Amino acid sequence: MAFGSTPDFDVVVIGAGAAGLSTAAFSAGLGLKVALIERGAMGGDCLNYGCVPSKAMLAAAHAAASARNAHRFGIRLPAPEIDWAALRAHIRGTIAHIAPTDSEARFRAMGVEVIRASAHFAAPDVIEAAGRRITFRRCVIAAGSQAIVPDIPGLGPVPWLTNETIFDLEEPPGHLIILGGGPIGLEMAQAHARLGCLVTVIEAGRIAGRDDPELADGLRRALTADGVALLEGAKLSRVEPDPAEDGTPGLVAVLEDGRRIGGTHLLLAVGRAPRLAGLDLTAGQVAHSKAGITTDAGLRSTTNRRVFAVGDIADPVGIGPRAFTHVASQHAGILARAMLFRLPAKVDYAALPRVTYTDPELAQIGMTEEEARAAGHDIRILRFPVPETDRAVTEGVRHGLVKLVATKSGRLLGAGILAPHAGEMAGTFALMIGRKMKLSALAGLVLPYPTLAEAAKRAAGDFYAPKLMSPFVKRLVGLLKRLP
């Protein structure tokens, strides 16, 4: 763009997922001229292939499990019948219900020019899309991430799936083999097992490897009770095609120790990689690595000050990428302050919550015990079993734990929760950690009775119990009782 000339757009956003849509909306709302470029489905991965369809499937699976377990409460029901076509319609309907919020029509009504095409840099201040050369003042790259397809010998002729294709299956998998025991793998494992499929998870390390081992252990027992076969510490050597007698595709997963697991479908859930291909970041003078676009803590490119990156594709120096929809929303807020208002704003994941939406859910907010010790903190660990709360007793909750990580002075550093709807409790801990609050705030909180959240309050109260029951306090109470 020539010096002094007016660019075509104030802000060009590449990618119409959670981060890109938020960025386009607030930029247009502030009166800027905005272009939103998307080559695929509006709403991105979360709406179409991730958060929304997976939670819709999990809800159906939970209903099936509730019907099977109703006898525990004196309710006799027949075994649930899974109507796969109706289940798929439920998932599609859920997406369709939310889709208008992310639609092209809605953003055009905001004044955003929506361009349905691939985009790439032609120069540091020029994007090419749909045969046009588009100049900009600011460009926000929000192209997201995609499932990693590992280099597995024999994978080519085998029917493999990712989160982008698993919801398209017209028939339920007979035996779903899942490679990877992280959040996506475990959610899909439990969902399909509860919907009547055989499921085997192959994990090279341990399941829920980023989460606290104590909490992961409770989840392991819950998944096993649902019929999920968990092969941990198992490395996949190769896969082989193994069609059924009627010609239906199938496979055999061969492990390094020689074990052979036969299945009908293979789901790859070993992680995600940023969508960098095709952007021609070199032409844009945008630094990047395999982890994503290199930015400062304010999400600005370290090599092209016109360019910002948000969401899964952003790799802030010294902080690293985080592939969560709620992080994309956090990034959009940072961008509004840093890019538009030129205010200081930095990425901070100290209070970041993450949730695996199994049943029970596994939530982690802030540091795990291992992370806190590695960071050099002198810590106290506080635990309370969720099944010991009165609400859990009434509902027959069998697995669950609240584990708090605090400093010796009582400031909360991290919280792990294994419980039904643990994600609904996560916000309280995120607030406490973000505001550097002490456990006294939680211990003194008046909660409605009965709730599972009492486990958190009881865990926090245990921090103060030794002081309240100390010999000094007992002597003090003995003296005070003599007063009229």
TrEMBL record:
FAD binds at residues 55, 312. NAD(+) binds at residues 180-187, 203, 271. Keywords: Disulfide bond, FAD, Flavoprotein, NAD, NADP, Nucleotide-binding, Oxidoreductase, Pyruvate, Redox-active center. Residues 9-331 form the FAD/NAD(P)-binding domain. Residues 353-459 form the Pyridine nucleotide-disulphide oxidoreductase dimerisation domain. It comes from the Bacteria. The lineage of its organism: Bacteria, Pseudomonadati, Pseudomonadota, Alphaproteobacteria, Acetobacterales. Belongs to the class-I pyridine nucleotide-disulfide oxidoreductase family. Its cofactor is FAD. It comes from Falsiroseomonas stagni DSM 19981. This is Pyruvate/2-oxoglutarate dehydrogenase complex, dihydrolipoamide dehydrogenase (E3) component. It holds the Pfam family Pyr_redox_2. Disulfide bonds join 46-51. GO terms for molecular function: flavin adenine dinucleotide binding; NAD(P)H dehydrogenase (quinone) activity; oxidoreductase activity, acting on a sulfur group of donors, NAD(P) as acceptor.
